[in-house]
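Box S2. Input/output pair 1.
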Amino acid sequence: MSPPFILCLDFDGVICHSAVECFVSSWIAYFDLIQHQTPVAVPLYVKEAFLSFRPFIRSGEDYVLIQELIDREKKVGSQKDFDSCIMEAGPEKMNHYKKIFYIAREGLIKKSREFWLSLNTIYSHMLEPLRRHASDTRVFIVSTKRSDFILELLKADGIHVTPNRVYYAGSKSKIALVREILSGMGSTRAIFVDDQIDHLRGDHMEDTEDILSCLAAWGYVKEEWLRESKGVKILLSSSTDILTPFASYGPFLAMRRAFMQFGCVSFSPFVPSSVLAKKEETYQGRGPARLRSAAVHRLSRSGTAVPFP
């Protein structure tokens, strides 16, 4: 018998805090492999600028473009501005950036797998629920991150998801991919959680009846997305919000109850001012403490420059 609903989760920004690793891999890709001129240190403003660009990201090649834009001191204030930069770069350049980005990441893994793992951290409120539900055939991961990387990161934290439930979207619309999974499972409803609002809306997303689209407020989101989330429900981690159930969801009521049983998040029809003022992020550590602290120290230490190995 087919399950009545499925749960589809994005990876970066929903399950995993990966901004540090993406910064490191894209830095190596842009400066080491493209420019062939590696700075001796990472200026602190570069890290801050990278994090401000992060919500605009949809795929791996975008990280390398961010490094280029920061290097060129290009100002980008919106998703529209960033998309214009992608258009200006063109498909040939962006495809090259994707290839180089993965070469850099794979080189980093080969050189120091433990260090690479330490740069990625599973959100603490997602860790235990994922371990409990890893074998649940209704739970899927839909991401623009390659599946092999996702599976390795999950395995390192004791989360054993079967490969056939981890989907690499590539350039395909995530909404379209969620519908493919729905069709393949013979299910009629899906909850789809992402931290990039364009992935959630898709084409005419506001008119959809088969997918409940949820924005993960703990991820890499822009403040205005939380205020202007038409057609998208806001999800808050249980550590930052009191459960506020929606009054009515029609056919999604049973799905909502089931998702609450997943045990990691709450739905909210509003966004508390505390979340808008400061989005707290808590992470579950992994690997040797010295590696974790080194990664944080490298990218968050105060001062004019941050040493980089």
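Box S3. Input/output pair 2.
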Amino acid sequence: MKQQINSSLIGGTLGMKAVSLGDLDNFLDWLVDGGDGADPQALYAAVAWTFWCVNLRANAVAGIPFGVYPRGMKRADFTEDNTVEFDIDLRPFLWTAEAWLLLKGAGYWLKRSNSVTVADLQILNSNTMKVLKWDADGPTVFRQQVGAKYRDYPAEDIVYFRTFNPKDDIREGVASGRVGELPALLVKQVNQWAEAFFRNGAVPLTLLMAEGTVPIVEQDRIRKAWRQIYQGVKRAFNTAVLQKGMKAEVIGQPIKDLAMPEMEVAKKHQILAAHMIPPAYAEPRLSQADRQDVQLALYTDTIIPECKNQLVPIVNEQYLDALGLQLGYRYNEIEALQRAEIAKAESASFMMSGVMLPSYTANVVSVEETRRVADALLQMAALPGLDDAFTPEEREPLDLAPAGAGDGGTPPGGGDAPGQSSPPKALAPGWGHHRVSLQSLAGGETKWQDEASRATLTVT
């Protein structure tokens, strides 16, 4: 006969009670997780900024174009035409993995296999999962427990995502929701205070004072009568009539001070910073250009590194590699990155076709020298350098020299009829302008300014 091992809970007015070790584990887990609504998952359901941050990042991760490709294919060949037909749509799995990493610090997929191969995937609730056993190579057994029931899975059946944890190399990592827990909790408490304030008729905390000593019974009667007359939204505009020397005095900070708008903004920025989202992303009055810059920063600083360093290696190593496949994101198809590449291309095309007039291009010794100068111009214009694989579009050079310069005064490329010339695309409305002097590019071996014209170029 199997003997059940019991433990004891002591405290309160119930004395000592015997419970099984399984129930004790559940109780201790409940104590650790907390029941006061302060954990990241409760805050996700209660604080709008936490909800928005988690969904923003999960949507971004799942929204980047990707495909399943043969193992060993180079990233340059990741195109939609080269994708392998794959029966499982990984998009919801990637969305949920990212959300669980933000809220719990770990995510779990169950590989459902048949006798031949992995037939399907199942998303497991991270609250029910934990690493049960491990060795020097990592986890060996995972346990899923719901109530008193549990099931153990070997490590080869689980795709295990986790964030970094400086105190633990095996179990769940540090969730960004945990980092932003305190500011989110403060926002929640401010919302609760405001809700209670208006639910009680927007009546501030009030002290009723009377001359002399008021018996306890009379205090209770007055307090009850005051609430019945003035508490609640329906009674918010009732008129108070005080008798027998009674006075009402509002205590505590004025309502305008309790609102603390500066604190609300600071906590919002802390929540966004905890989720590695640029705080400017949430500003309501950003210009279109600024919003595009912030969106680009979100992808380049947070989303793309998350995919490259966290999600893709785990999916490939623990799941697709055994199938002879690999997950590949097509980052170059992200709209924010495409806008940035177009801006760089337009600027470089304008500079390389417009700056290098016949009187200047004689000094250009090679294509490499041309690219070096274009990169220098881009850096002076506060733009990142050109992607090595990018080739700017062909464009007729622009006439920046005064009349009579060049071959017989004819602009390079023939030019437009008088009064019909159009500005270069890089100078179109909506482009930010940076003034760059050609003279500043003189580097010793190559001179980029006509001594006669001292032309100045405006680029974007």
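Caption for Box S3: DSSP finds 13 helices and 14 strands in the chain. The two ends are 82 Å apart (CA to CA).
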